[in-house]
Design brief:
Elements lengths: L3 E6 L3 H19 L3 E5 L4 H13 L5 E5 L1 H11 L6 E5 L5 H6 L6 H13 L3 E9 L2 E3 L2 E5 H11 L7 H12 L4 E7 L4 E12 L21 E7 L3 H7 L14 E6 L1 E5 L4 E4 L2 E5 L2 E13 L2
Parallel strand pairs: 1-2, 1-3, 3-4
Antiparallel strand pairs: 5-6, 5-15, 7-9, 7-13, 8-9, 8-12, 9-10, 10-11, 12-15, 13-14
């Protein structure tokens, strides 16, 4: 194993926390005897190219410093290779780190944990979702939640998470369930009226909203939450329960488990790890033990 690791940094993550977090994370690795090289891309494509070059060059580990979007890029670079991934989660959501029980917004602790795991050759093999040639670690979102993302991404004001709160209010005003077609594994196509469909490799999205609370990152299956055809009043009653994961007990909510799902609906964009993937239909497959994470 080489003694050099690569810090893969998003300096804008968490309103600038990424840039500040890189220093204590790097210090933790140096204190453990590793040399540290830092990679910062000019944009997402350039960052991914540089990360892949580091992996191809034999780096001892790729350590993503940022939020779920940065970790998603890192997953594209390390999945299917022998290079382990370290996670220093300092973004807004940090849901992949949350699913793995890793430190959140504690860069020194996260760096120290990853360095100790690398020194001891301790890794955890976890599953990923795959849609075409893209991989994701947390949740594929389709429906009301993705429409909120669409609207929020179009808004230039206000900044930060508040604009997504406003987008949610606006979407609620125009709310109506969507006609979906879904196919689980190789089963028959089902037509369902639904508010949203969430395909979970991890348990949460949006910074701790436990939309698929029973999902496990190493069981080879997705947990799929379908919030059925419900009224605006019912949605407002059920949605707050997502933070504790108790929404799955509501009669309008159904949970499936499958290794593969195709989701189809007109006018709906799919988002995975908070990143837009494009319009439905999309087919997601669970890839068992796709990546090795530096963890206890």
């Amino acid at each position: 194993m080489t003694s050099e690791i690569t810090l893969f940094v998003n300096p804008t993550a968490g309103r600038g926390r990424g840039a500040h977090a890189a220093q204590p994370a790097a210090r933790a690795f140096r204190d453990a005897g590793f040399s540290v090289r830092t990679v910062v891309g000019e944009d997402a494509d350039d960052a991914l190219r540089r990360a892949r070059e580091a992996v191809d060059g034999g780096t001892g580990a790729l350590v993503a410093v940022g939020g779920d979007g940065m970790i998603n890029l890192a997953l594209q670079a390390v999945a299917g290779t022998r290079t382990p991934l370290g996670i220093v989660a300092v973004g807004t959501g940090n849901d992949f780190a949350r699913a793995l029980g890793l430190p959140i917004r504690e860069p020194e602790a996260a760096g120290r944990l990853a360095a100790e795991a690398l020194k001891a050759a301790t890794t955890r093999a976890v599953d990923l979702g795959r849609i075409g040639d893209r991989l994701f670690g947390t949740v594929l979102a389709c429906g009301f939640d993705s429409r909120v993302n669409d609207r929020g991404n179009r808004m230039r004001w206000p900044a930060g998470r508040f604009k997504y709160d406003l987008a949610m209010v606006a979407e609620l005003a125009a709310f109506k369930p969507f006609p979906f077609r879904i196919r689980l594994d190789d089963g028959p196509v089902q037509e369902v009226g639904a508010t949203l469909i969430a395909v979970g490799n991890g348990t949460s999205y949006g910074g701790g909203m436990r939309i698929t609370p029973g999902a496990l990152v190493d069981d080879g299956l997705f947990d799929i939450t379908v919030v059925g055809d419900c009224s605006r009043a019912t949605l407002l009653k059920v949605f707050p329960r997502v933070y504790k994961g108790t929404h799955v007990d509501h009669p309008k909510v159904t949970v499936y488990r499958a290794a593969k799902i195709t989701v189809e609906a007109a006018g709906i964009t799919g988002y995975a790890d908070g990143e837009p993937l494009g319009p439905l239909p999309l087919t997601a497959e669970c890839v068992p033990q796709a990546v090795r994470i530096l963890a206890r």
